[in-house]
Write a structure and sequence with these properties.
Blueprint (H helix, E strand, L loop, with lengths): L2 E2 L9 E6 L3 H11 L5 E7 L4 H9 L4 E5 L8 H11 L4 E6 L4 H10 L3 E4 L4 H16 L18 E6 L7 H16 L3 E5 L7 H4 L8 H7 L5 H5 L2 E4 L4 E4 L13 H14 L2 E5 L6 H9 L2 E6 L3 H16 L7 E8 L6 H8 L3 E6 L3 H8 L11 H14 L17
Parallel strand pairs: 2-3, 2-4, 4-5, 5-6, 7-11, 7-12, 8-10, 8-11, 12-13, 13-14
Antiparallel strand pairs: 1-3, 9-10
Helix pairs in contact: 2-3, 6-15, 10-11
The structure holds adenosine-5'-triphosphate and magnesium ion.
């Protein structure tokens, strides 16, 4: 039974509903939240009863704290009520024992703003509720439901990924963007999602056109044209760069929904977008792997790199990131390192490209250029060409009048 548990009349307090199949748990949580400032638990009810969900939403709550219970699957009747009634104004905070594939899909489908572990401290939960409530109030909760461009007009996105640092993600991301730019004869976007210590801007000698922190506030309505105002052109390569925040602490505020909005906007404006990530497995790194059409798993020439790749592949499996979209890039490859054929066999993924030691790599970084601008036919440039060919076709196409050309303002 849904119960009204407190007066909702306090001005400006966030109105919260707590839904759980476990009466004792939800009552205890409501009691723990009761003294929290600026937050009122106005309803609690059973998360498995559509009428309780409907009642909470009809009551105009700002945030629903939804306990996923044992199964973690959101019954479809609840999903329908949620989509029909919330109107983008109610944020969902999911409380779960663990985030598995089924629950992750549910969270994405419903546009959950936050996921919190069931055993989390009260402070962590209330912080998630505040964040979700603020985001919903500013329209942020609508991000996950943002209209997509028609499939035919969507550019491809590719993420460079590794759980091991320093293996060459940024080097290959820059070089791949430059190779795609040449191959497509059209502007290509490169987003630096290695947010804590973004290196693309430094490696290309760029200062951000506009701070990424401003974009976070605009994510709910981000389209291709708005995204362009945040991009800094790299004149020598023709690549348009979304620089990481200059203040690393901004990274903490970047949510999956922001990355999804950036990727969608970029897809609508560019035929190709490259996403550089960090090896820290932050929310943005994971979101990049999730949202991208293709993922290039970068390995260095040593066994720990292969072990990190194994971990990444297992992680993808657990979170329903299809391994069919993942390929390996072996960087700084050397004959005494792991054998490519062995790696393919043990990791179960194809090697899409490999690059040996390239003296031009460090020179290029120090000169603010892609490696191919220093050594056109070196190992890194050749590997990026192979990756680009795999992604957009084997032959270098002639400059074309396509969907994405002539859009630039
Ligand atoms: N094939 C290569 N040959 C020689 N040096 C390379 C090669 N690839 C990358 N490097 C150098 O290795 C260093 C690390 O590369 P890079 O910054 O691209 O790695 P990363 O995976 O992005 O690192 P991080 O995890 O810190 O973001 C850089 O100095 C780069 O110039
Ligand atoms: Mg990097």
């Amino acid at each position: 039974m849904m119960a009204a548990v407190a007066d909702a009349s306090a001005p400006r307090a966030l109105r919260v509903a707590v839904l759980s199949p476990d009466l004792a748990w939800r009552s205890a949580l409501a009691a723990r939240l009761a003294p929290v400032e600026d937050l009122r638990v106005v309803r609690h009810g059973d998360s498995e009863r559509p009428e309780d969900v409907e009642a909470a939403l009809a009551h105009g709550v700002d945030v629903v704290v939804w306990d996923a219970g044992e199964g973690g699957a959101f019954p479809s009747a609840l999903g329908e009520a949620w989509q029909r009634l919330r109107g983008g104004r109610t944020a969902l905070v999911v409380v779960a024992e663990r985030l598995d594939g089924a629950l992750y899909r549910t969270c994405r489908t419903l546009g959950a703003a936050e996921v919190v572990a069931r055993g989390a401290q009260l402070a962590e939960l209330t912080e998630a509720v505040y964040r979700a409530g603020r985001e919903a109030a500013s329209g942020g909760a609508a991000v996950a439901g943002m209209a997509s461009a028609p499939a035919a007009e969507r550019g491809l996105t590719v993420a460079l990924f590794s759980l091991r640092g320093g293996v060459g993600k940024t080097t290959l991301a820059i070089e791949l963007a430059a190779a795609l730019r040449r191959r497509l004869a059209s502007p290509v976007a490169l987003a630096d999602l290695a947010l804590g210590a973004g290196a693309v801007g430094v490696a290309l000698g760029l200062r951000p056109a506009r701070p990424l922190s401003d974009l976070l506030g605009e994510a709910a309505s981000l389209d291709g044209e708005t995204l362009r105002t945040y991009l800094t052109p790299h004149a020598a390569s023709g690549v348009e760069v979304l620089c990481a925040p200059e203040a690393p602490e901004v990274a903490e505020y970047v949510r999956h929904a922001h990355v999804a909005a950036i990727v969608e906007a970029s897809r609508s404006a560019f035929p190709a977008t490259v996403l550089d990530t960090s090896s820290a497995l932050g929310e943005a790194d994971f979101a990049a792997a999730q949202e991208a059409d293709s993922v290039i798993l970068v390995l260095g020439p040593d066994l720990p790199s292969a072990a990190a790749a194994r971990l990444a592949i297992d992680l993808f499996g657990r979170f329903d990131i299809p391994v069919a979209k993942v390929g390996l890039a072996l960087n700084r490859w050397r004959s005494d390192g792991p054998d490519p054929a062995d790696l393919e066999r043990t990791l179960g993924l194809p090697v899409w490209a490999r690059a040996g030691e390239d003296r031009a790599a460090v020179t290029a970084m120090n000169r603010g250029l892609p490696v191919s601008h220093v050594a056109r036919r070196g190992p890194v440039a050749a590997a990026a060409e192979r990756l680009a060919a795999r992604l957009v076709g084997g032959a270098r196409p002639a400059p074309r009048r396509g969907l994405f050309r002539g859009r630039r303002t």
